[in-house]
From TrEMBL:
<dbReference type="Pfam" id="PF01890">
    <property type="entry name" value="CbiG_C"/>
</dbReference>
<keyword id="KW-0378">Hydrolase</keyword>
<dbReference type="InterPro" id="IPR036518">
    <property type="entry name" value="CobE/GbiG_C_sf"/>
</dbReference>
<protein>
    <submittedName>
        <fullName>Cobalt-precorrin 5A hydrolase</fullName>
    </submittedName>
</protein>
<dbReference type="GO" id="GO:0009236">
    <property type="term" value="P:cobalamin biosynthetic process"/>
</dbReference>
<feature type="domain" description="CobE/GbiG C-terminal">
    <location>
        <begin position="3"/>
        <end position="113"/>
    </location>
</feature>
<dbReference type="GO" id="GO:0016787">
    <property type="term" value="F:hydrolase activity"/>
</dbReference>
<dbReference type="InterPro" id="IPR002750">
    <property type="entry name" value="CobE/GbiG_C"/>
</dbReference>
Length: 121
């Protein structure tokens, strides 16, 4: 399963969320779900509805991410909300397949994680 983690500033426009997600999907392919922190759930609900995707609200503090923003680390206890949300929602052993992409306006980020591959049945 592919999960897109989304981070955004309060009031980020839907177009910014879409642009960040589109950029991440261009690298990794389409996603099966969206994820973000609880505080941003209301901001992401329109995007989830538009894309007909489930939205997972997750805790991100303490999750190690490939990219690190000092500002986000101070605010949320992780280097990237987008990457950490994707990893948290994708579950144990998940890996980032599209690192943080930033919308052109800088108000939204998206990253994609893939669930751990399971062995043959």
């Amino acid at each position: 399963m592919m999960v897109a983690g989304i981070g955004c500033r309060a009031g980020a426009p839907l177009a910014a969320l879409q642009a960040a997600l589109d950029a991440a999907e261009a690298q990794a392919g389409p996603v099966d779900a969206l994820a973000t922190i609880a505080a941003r759930g209301p901001h992401l609900a329109p995007l989830a509805g538009l894309r007909a995707l489930p939205l997972h609200l997750v805790a991100v503090e303490g999750i190690t991410t490939p990219t690190r923003s000092p500002r986000i680390l101070a605010l949320h206890g992780t280097g990237s909300v987008a990457e950490a949300a994707a990893l948290a929602a994708a579950g144990p052993g998940a890996r980032i397949v599209a690192a943080r992409h930033v919308s052109p306006c800088g108000q939204a980020t998206a990253a994609i994680a893939e669930t751990a591959q399971k062995g043959p049945a």
